[in-house]
Amino acid sequence: MQNTIREAKRALRDQVRAAVTRMEPNEKAAASAQARALLAAQPLWRAAQWVLFFAPLPEELDVWPLLAVALSTAKRVALPRYVAKTKTYEACQILDPRLDLQVGHFGVREPHSRRAPLLSTHLDLILVPGVAFDLHGHRLGRGKGYYDQLLKGLSGTTCGVAFDQQIVGEIPIEPHDVRLDCVLTPTRWIQLKP
Description:
Layout: H1 2-21, H2 25-40, H3 43-47, E1 50-52, H4 65-72, E2 76-83, E3 88-94, H5 97-100, E4 101-103, E5 109-111, E6 122-128, E7 132-133, E8 139-140, H6 146-152, E9 155-161, E10 182-184, E11 189-191
Parallel strand pairs: 1-2, 1-6, 6-9, 9-10
Antiparallel strand pairs: 2-3, 4-5, 7-8, 10-11
């Protein structure tokens, strides 16, 4: 059964990645801008004091410009940092992206090693990347389970961030998979949990 689920996840990853790869760079940029505007219009975003961002990879929807907006409006911002020793992620506050970031283990921007992990695990809004999402709050990640582990250690509203091409009918799930509260795409804000 586990192997069947993993094979289904692998096939779905390939299918969704192919759809995103077919998007032109200008199409991705326009879709990302549209999604950022939609997120900024949400009461949840406006009320959030603590926001966990992620540094998007080239194939992911780009929420990064909102990080500067958040900081300029006195929101507190955190990013995940990979801890190689434990093979886990931890959330760390960012005060100045120019000074507080470095290229991390997987070639992704993350908090510099001098930034301490957050003492509180409660965040108001947690932006979550992924390969695919469904309308039941399920997320398909890259296959290592790192983000699910991170999410289990945090509390707050979790929001999947995706292009419309990354929304699928159903994602096969395993016991360790964490269900999200909402999903943001360029055309929709989908509230999944009350």
